[in-house]
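Lecture 7 notes: from sequence to structure.
We start with the chain below.
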Amino acid sequence: MRKTGICIIEHSKIIVDKQIIFENQAENFSDFAKEAYKNLGINYPKFHKMDNLSKLAFLASEMILKNEDHSRTALVFANTSSSLDTDSKYQESINSPENYFPSPAVFVYTLPNICVGEISIRHKMQTENAFFVLDEFDENFLNLYAGQVLQSGKAEKVLCGWVELYQESYNAFVYLLTM
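Predicted structure tokens for the same chain:
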């Protein structure tokens, strides 16, 4: 398998193939993501409704996928916190007797696989996708799984990635695999 198009997002930087393509001094991920979206000229209005995990995965994927045909590209992502960041926010809305208004818009993002769904919709992907919750980043595991998908003929490419976000700690490592 061949790895192409590596994107890393961490410490208020987006790095693609070892080159910094965006950097700012945002103190929180939400502000960083908004600035990156605007500065990079991405046009996808649903971005603003996404939770932070989905925004992280979406930004990293956009840097690699661009506007090419990816209908035969599969997705294999993982992290360690699942959707805990959004789950916590949703639970806070339930726990507050004064502000008890659990938002369906937040509830939608209480599953980690929603971020691969957002990417699939954006790029009209019509193949396999998986989101694993692992103790730590395991590139070998992701590559083995992606290799099985490629060998099965279900996809021509696989976008693999680690997208970890909890509170203000975040990092993404996303890459494209082909045979």
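Points to note: The helical segments are 29-39, 52-65, 84-95, 104-107, 114-122, 139-152. The chain has a mean pLDDT of 93.
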